Each structure stands twice: as structure tokens, then as C-alpha cells.
Amino acid sequence: MIERFAAIVGEAHALTRADDQAPYLREWRDRYTGKTPVVLRPGSTEEVSRILALANEHQVGIVPQGGNTGLVGGQIPSQEGNEIVLSLARLKAVRNIDAAGSTMIVEAGVTLLEAQNAAQAADRLFPLSLASEGSAMIGGVLATNAGGTAVLAYGNARNLTLGLEAVLADGRVWHGLRRLKKDNTGYDLRDLLIGSEGTLGVITAACLKLLPMPAERETAIVAFQSPDDALKLLRLAERHAGQSLTAFEFWAARAQEFALRFMPNVRDPFADRHPWYALIELSQARGSDQSANAMEYLLTAASEDGIIRDAVFAGSLQQAQDFWRLRDAFSEAQKGAGGSIKHDISVPVARIPEFLMRAASVVERVCPAARPVPFGHFGDGNLHYNVTQPEGMDRAAYLALWTPMSDAIFELVADLDGSISAEHGIGQMKREALRLYRTPVELDMMRSIKQALDPKGILNPGKLL
Questions:
Q1: pLDDT value at position 288?
Q2: Taking CA 87 as the corner, what is the angle to CA 82 and CA 93, rounded to the nearest 5 degrees?
Q3: What is the pLDDT of residues 213-249, one digit of tens each?
């Protein structure tokens, strides 16, 4: 079977040596590792089609993988070693950019950063942005319906996609690369595949929405006393800036402390330490009637209302990039502080302060002296509520508390009408929890869709459902 699969992609792109396979079998948090008889690296949609047709015929599990930046183990094969990893990394073409129509067609292996740069070269903006954008690939970004830092203004991956090309479990190709903003001809198959984590089909290309490049961006980091003040500042920003508010990122002092201690090339924008911080970005289009000093007006009003303690404006593009470098460092910085139990949750925006207050008590109950490190996308209710081990505690002993810690946090999230997965997906990590936080009707609907599109269960087995 390996020889038959290898013949489709060519021997050079069928990886069977352990050293060659290693980057595909471990995710960057080191929580999930797997085994595979072969990693296949197809170079075209046609090759993906032939691989899936053969796999479906012989009921061989296929695990699609993009940049391997997923955070819930959805892209890692099982330890049994009987599933093939299908890397889409060679599907690298930017097939078409239609600047006049504000669309772009790219293949699944194009990284998010490459897509942004291709749009910028055509004087257009592709606004989806993640800390992992240099490695995350379009196929995986869409398969997980990734969010990132610009959801507040532009929506998540689903909102920025007009059409898809995908290969179904039996090898048939769905040619759905439509450029239409309105198309109500039957079920929305595009939205069905986006966010399905490779369990319903393999995305090979996408038609993405582009926007006008902002004529001006203003960026600032502000400091304040409490999450309640962050909520007040967000509402004030919405009133003052309207649609020009494109980012409102939020973090606790400990997240910044870890970044400064463990990450290179980041600096503290403030002379004094504060309990909470937010990064605000305002973007104005050409011809906008928004004031060029909108940020100054906003933060002056916030200061007069007693909402903020301090603020630092980015006076140059380099300073703005430094601010974002600090924000993007939080996830990786936590490795230096020891074991970390991760939660990607969302709650209604108005209930974020309540969540943070109650979650601190939950953490203390499960593991006294554990250190919460909350940060995330305050404007859309998505928090990465990560909890670092107590100082001096054995890392393995702490990580053994992952399930009780997560169960307790998820119970709180459910009580606040939130979601246990805001943007990372379900994968392996939250598969069992999904049964507790989705109704039997919802699960039956999901299983019926899975059965209809993948009756032999070859697509990303053991993930999501």
C-alpha cells in the first residue's frame, strides 16, 4: 500500500524515514505525538484526489496537515501508526488576484503571511492575522475557522472566504471557488467544510475576500486597574471610533512579565508595572471622515473618565510592530515558566470580568498557587485562559491536573453561556468534552453529516467526534 501511495506523489514526497517524518508527528506544545507509516506530500489537487480515492477504497485513515500549528492535536495522527499524514505544504500557488473584484484564490499550502503579502502587493488587505501566521497555512486556517487579532472588525476565517476547492473522502473534487458575495442556491457547503477540522473533506484552495488597504493606522497600549475598566474602555472605543476599531487585545500583568523574562526582542512600553493592559488599533480607509487623531481623542476621554492609568502611543511603524511583537509573544513565553494548562474559551463580552474573577477561585481550588495567565481578544469575547504551574512544583505532576482543571473551567464557561472552544477547534483535546457541552440533537446532526460525507470514516479519524 505504501508503494501505491508513493507512486502518486513520487518517492521524494513519500516520507518513510523517522528523521524525515519527525516534524509532522509532534505539535509545538509537545502534548501530542503520533506515528505514521508514511507522510505524503502531494503537489496538486489531482494527486490529493487520487490519494483519497485509494485510501477510501482500502479504508486507510488520512490525517490532513497544514503548517502543524494547531493547538488541540487535530493535525497529529494516533499512536497506533495506521494513519497516513497528508501534508498540503506543497500546494503553494497564488492562482489569481483580482484587485478590482477584491478577491484572491490561493492554494492550501500558502501561509497566512504569504497570503497577506500577496494581497498587499496588489494594494489590498487580507486582514486575518495570527501569532503563527508565518507558519500557519490557509488550508488549516480554514479547516479550524481560525480567528486571531482582527476578528473584532473583519470576522474570522469563515467571514473572509467566498469559495472553496476541496476533495471529498471518495476522491471526488468539489470545484466551489466562487467569487460571489451572495449565493443562496441550496445548502452552504463552503461553511460546512470551514471549521470541520479535516473530518468532512480536504480543502485544497480557497477564494478569499480582500479589502482596501488602510490609509492610516494608530496603535496604542493602555494600562488600567481592572477588567471592568477594560470593558468600559471597549465600549468607549466603540462609541468614539466605530468601525475604525480593528483590534482590542487584552492581557494580565503576568503575561507581560513572562514575555519580558523569557522572550527576546520584546520590551516594556511602560516605566511602571500595572495590573492589566490592552492594545488598541484604529484603522482609517482613504477618504475616511474619521479624525487622524482619533486615538488621542479616545484616550483623552478615557483618562478624563478615570478608566485608564497610563497609555503609550506608537509614534512610528517600528513602535507599532514592537507593540504587536509583545502581544504575540505571550503563548510561547509561557514555556519558560513551566507547565501550562491551556483554555481557548469565549464568553459574552460583558461577562468577561465576571469570568476572570470566578476563574481565579476555580484555579485556586484545583491547584493552590497555580498562576493564571489570561490574555486574548477582549473585543469578541475570546480569552486564552492559560494556567501556569506553581513555582517549584514538578511539571509532570502539574500537567497531570489538566483534566480536572479544564473540567472546572469548562463548567464555569458553560454557566456563563460561553463556549469551550472559541478558535482552536476540538481536535483530540476536547473531543470528550464536546459530548458534555453539545446537546444530543446537535451531536446527532454532526454525526449524520459525517456519515453522509465520509461513510468509511477515513478522514481525520478520532478527531472532533
A1: 55
A2: 160
A3: 998 899 999 999 999 999 999 999 999 888 899 999 9
- pLDDT at residue 169 greater than cutoff 70: yes
Q: Is 399 exposed, middle or buried (0-12, 13-18, 19+ CB in 10 A)?
A: middle
pTM of model > 0.70: yes
**CA torsion, points 365, 369, 370, 374, in degrees to nearest 10?**
90
Q: What are phi and psi of 136, to 5 degrees?
A: -60, 135
CB–CB of 23/135 below 8 Å? Answer: no
Q: Report which of 410, 419, 415, 413 is spatially closest to residue 442, judged by C-alpha positions.
A: 419
In the structure grid, which three cell numbers stand for residue 125, read together?
488587505
Question: Based on the number of CB atoms within 10 Å of its own CB, is 187 exposed (0-12), middle (13-18) or buried (19 or more)?
Answer: exposed
Q: Whose grid coordinates read 501569532?
A: 131
Mean pLDDT of 27-41: 93
Any idea what DSSP says for residue 390?
Answer: P
Cα separation, 117 vs 100, in Å, equals 17
pLDDT band (50, 70, 90) for residue 314: very high
Q: How far is CA 195 from the centre of its chain?
A: 11
Beta-carbon count within 10 A of 293 CB: 10
CA dist 188 and 204 (Å) reads 18
Three-class SS string for 66-111?
CCCCCCCCCCCCCCCCCEEEEECCCCCCEEEEECCCCEEEEECCCE
- Sign of the CA dihedral with 382 first, then 113, 253, and 71 last: positive
Helix ranges, 279-415 (H): 294-304, 317-328, 330-333, 352-366, 395-399, 402-415
Q: 15-21 long-range contacts, Cβ below 8 Å, gap at least 24? A: 15/39, 15/40, 15/41, 21/85
Q: Cα dist. 232→150, 301, 356, 360, 374 in Å? A: 20, 11, 16, 21, 18
Rounded Cα–Cα distance for residues 123 and 210 (Å): 10
Task: Say how far apart CA 265 and CA 260 lie, in whole Å.
Answer: 9
Q: What is the pLDDT of residue 176?
A: 96
What does the alpha-carbon distance between residue 311 and residue 83 come to, in Å, rounded to a whole number? Answer: 52
Q: What per-residue string of b and e applies to 311-350 under the rule 16 or more CB within 10 Å gives b?
A: bbbbeeeebbebbbbbbbbbbbbbbebbbbbbbbbbbebe
- Strand pairing report for 83-87 and 39-40: parallel
